[in-house]
Design brief:
By secondary structure, the protein is of the alpha+beta class. It is built from 8 helices and 21 strands. The strands form 4 sheets. Strands 3, 4, 5, 6, 7, 8, 9, 10, 11, 12, 13, 14 and 15 form a 13-stranded mixed β-sheet that branches. The chain has a 3-stranded mixed β-sheet with strand order 16-18-21. It has a 3-stranded mixed β-sheet with strand order 17-20-19, covered by helices on one side.
């Protein structure tokens, strides 16, 4: 079961809104839950039964901040000779907050998120306010544009900035910009042509990282299931601001100029700059696909998003082969026929399912197959 689904079930149970089917699902999970998972569930119930629901978002946000502070305090090692507190204590709202033993990071976040899911009026607002500050989630007041797989769209923002949103992507943006910054939130891929305003920087939030500009054109690729976040520049200068690492006090900033790309590795947290043809990264919004020594695993992801198919490999070693090629306004079958000309791959396409097979290449030294 996904954690987000579990939040919903626990919240519904505490609010008395569980259906019979949902109750069976939750009880089935509880029956096989680990001791630690069961403890988290019990703590959520204790929190719900303690404080009375608050009436407005501001109070809820303060209550949530106090809860997080107490969870963080509980995680700190106790002084020598002093046991970790276990008792309950009075909260400012008149209820109780349970002082917990030290916990793993995932358990603290789970408790915090689940607690917010079951708070009364204003709870969702308070959680999104916290998430916007700590995880890069968009505020609730923002509008959302969503593109499913196989679709693209253009969004014109209030300041005149144009955004081309790629397939399988989400963009959150305000109806109007106010304050000292223009801020939007992206999950997926988009090409931005930002209206210049030196007094009001334009900021794209991608998770906990930021891309900041004054006025320029560039592409941002930040899919959740990709191994990296990429920003390629066509005109102007772009600052990529990496979220602070656990051992660092400050965030790192890298500036990139036209025909450069900054790549952030999610696994190693490393940043690197590469020389590229910036226009290649704007080609997708002109119905083109460009691969430059691209691993076939990444090619497969692109085909899934652009043509709304599910891709499988007959032999997993095929994923390592690298492909170079350019395709302009062609159907999936036309693209596959051209790739078959390398004589390294065969394809089986049935409805929305694509199987990649064939001889492939040497997995120890993957060839760069050019079309």
């Amino acid at each position: 079961m996904e954690i987000s689904e579990l939040y919903d079930l626990i919240g519904k149970e505490l609010a008395g809104e569980l259906s019979e089917v949902e109750r069976e699902v939750l009880h089935a999970w509880l029956a096989q839950a680990t001791e630690e998972e069961r403890l988290v569930y019990d703590e959520i119930r204790l929190f719900w039964q303690g404080p009375k629901p608050v009436a407005n978002p501001a109070d809820t946000a303060r209550a949530f901040d106090r809860l997080l502070a107490r969870i963080d305090e509980a995680e700190q090692p106790a002084p020598a000779g002093k046991p970790t507190p276990q008792a309950t204590e009075a909260d400012e709202t008149g209820g109780r907050v349970v002082a917990m033993p030290r916990a793993s990071r995932w358990r603290r976040l789970w408790l915090a998120a689940a607690s917010m899911a079951v708070l009364a009026t204003g709870g969702t607002v308070a959680y999104r306010q916290y998430a916007a500050a700590h995880t890069g989630a968009a505020p609730l007041s923002y509008e959302e544009r969503t593109n499913p797989r196989g679709t693209k769209s253009k969004v014109l923002l209030a300041d005149g900035t144009a955004v081309w949103l790629n397939a399988d992507s989400h963009l959150w943006f305000p109806a109007t910009f106010s304050g000292a910054r223009r801020e939007v939130y992206l999950e997926g891929e988009a090409f931005f042509d930002v209206k210049r305003n030196e007094q009001m920087p334009f900021i794209i939030h991608v998770g906990r990282h930021e891309v900041r500009v004054l006025g320029t054109s560039f592409n941002v690729k930040a899919y959740q299931d990709d191994d990296a976040v990429e920003t390629a520049v066509v005109t102007g200068r772009v600052a990529f601001i990496r979220a602070a690492l656990p051992a660092a006090a400050e965030r790192d900033t890298i500036y990139v100029v036209p025909d450069q790309k900054v790549v952030y590795s999610k696994a190693s947290h490393e940043l690197r700059v590469e020389q590229v043809n910036g226009l290649d990264y704007a080609a997708w919004n002109q119905r083109s696909l460009i691969f430059q020594a691209t691993p076939l695993a990444e090619v497969a992801k692109t085909l899934e998003r652009q043509y709304n198919v599910t891709v499988r490999f007959e032999d997993e070693r095929l994923r390592n082969c690298r492909l170079t090629g350019r395709f302009k306004d062609q159907s999936l079958r036309e693209v596959l026929r051209l790739i078959e000309m390398t004589r390294a791959f065969d394809f089986e396409l049935h409805n929305n399912s694509l199987l990649i097979k064939g001889l492939g290449c040497d997995s120890e030294a993957p060839e760069r197959l050019t079309i």
